[in-house]
Fold this protein.
Amino acid sequence: MKIKVKKTFHSLTGKLILSIGILMIVGSAVFWYFLIYYEEREFIRNSEKYGHSLADVVRKSMRYGMLTSQPHPIKQAVEAIGSAEDVLGIRVFDCKGRVAYSSNKDEKGLVLDAAKSFCMNQYPRRAEIKEAPSYSDRQDKNGFKALNMLTPIYNEPACYTSSCHVHRKGDTILGIIESDISLSVMDKTTREHKIAMTIFVSGFIFAISVVLCKILWNTVSVPISILAKGMEEVSAGNLNYTVKIDTKDELGELAASFNAMTGDIRKAKNELVEWGSTLEKKVQEKTEAIRKAQAQLVHSEKLASLGRMAAGVAHEINSPLTGIVTFAHLLQKKFDAGTQEREDIDVIIDQANRCSNIIKGLLGFARASAADKTAVNINDILNSSLNIVRNKADFFNVKMVINYEEKLHYVKADTSQLQQVFLNMIMNAADAMDGKGTITITTKNTTENGRDFIEIEFRDTGSGITDKNLEKIFEPFFTTKPVGKGTGLGLAVSHGIIQEHGGNIFVKTKPGKGTSFFIKLPANKEVL
Amino acid sequence: MSKGNILIIDDEDIVRISCKRALMPEGFEVKTAQNGIEGLKMIEEERFDIVLTDLKMPDIDGIEVLRLIKQRWADTVVIIITGYQTVDSAVKAIKLGAYDYIEKPFTPDGIVNVVHRALEDRKK
């Protein structure tokens, strides 16, 4: 991905470059200034030396002429020297400030106040005069610097003892030599130095700036932009973004830490998302489990109270029923078969038996909540149940298919209660097929949510159960059998018993094709 | 000479009458008591071959009657009649020496068969 680096002076690199640049320029300017300053000083010193030696030459050339009081050789010497290259003019003043000799012929007799006062007042002491020549910053016609120097001519014994007696012994200064010298050569060199120095310093600043910029760009700006881009991406939610900085410096470490942090956030976010998505499912599962447990509890409580009631009712009803049955039987014996009375009594006996069956069914609820559980083999209980029904007339035309798992897990259960349930299943299957068809009984080991169960299937080839009826089949007193044939308690009691055993009973049916009842019971693997 | 002396203990009138009507034609001497205490008093006074007692009665229950009879008259056959049978009571009764359990409602033939069987077993 192309990284866009910020290029304004507000950026970190901009600020760094700006401040370093300013520092460099200031530093270079100071350096440059002092260099120029010393150059200038040297220049002045050199030019003074030059001026002194020139003045000395003039003085020495004049000496003989002055001692012999001959103006002509002096004039010749002054003019000769004045005509030399770089010498702009030579003037010799007497102490009245009047030009005695000059390289420029027109100036003779000119009075210069500066020279006069210089001579009379300003230079009383010899030493100071020598050390302090007058320098003025003039320029020649080419624009180069020029030196204007006033050099005194001191009195000496040869002067005041000469035959002309022009000068007295008490005079200190006899006159002034003013020399105007063009410093073009030196000035030219100095100017060239300055230009060279300026170019050098500028070039140096430029080169340093370029190198510095390049270094800052590569080591700071680019990595920081990459990091900034990374943070932007991460804050926008792209947690898969990794920052690619492979350097071993602090920024490299920062990038590595940043990547580690992003990784952690990604992991945490994933966990959170996963947690969030599964939370709903978990809540649903728990709610379902609680609902089931509550339903189970309510059902158990219902069963128990129904059982208690049934026990009471059974006790109360069974005594009068005993009377009805006993006396009906006694009466039955008094009438021959085929008489109207005998038939009537048979009806009484049948109906009394029906009542008795209902009571027995109700008692199933009482028994469902009082189980005596031992480790049992379901296959054995199924076999004993089959033995009971096998010889019944209802089963003459029913084909029994047995499909047992040989190594079936044991189950902790009440044998007689399970037998009651299995008998009920088999009888219902036979009824559903009107006594003709096939009942297939299958057992197998299964696992659900990591727990072991055994599953028993009773499959018939009967009429099936309609959706409307399917909702009600486990309700007490619900029956589709003709009045007097079923009590509507068999499945309700079976359901109660299986639930009491921690199991589950459910149905799969296809109207017209047949029905399968499944019973699931928790396996007891401790017993082998 | 009667086939056997039988006592019926039950708080329900109809059950007592039913038993009596079922057993008397078979040649048994049948007496009845309304509750456990009355029954036990009668046993004190007279020897019975078979006692048919209800399990649930107002004063003392059938199990207690069974226990007391078996303590003193071990050869008397006790048959329990019950309105509803539970595994607990059945096990208890058999352990205490009850011969059999008859569930209400019973038929005359049913009760006669049990009594006959009990007497035959007793002779052995």
Chain A touches chain B at residues 310-311, 314-316, 318-327, 329-330, 352, 356, 359, 363, 366-367, 370, 372, 416 (CB under 8 Å). Residues 7 and 309 of chain A are 92 Å apart (CA to CA).
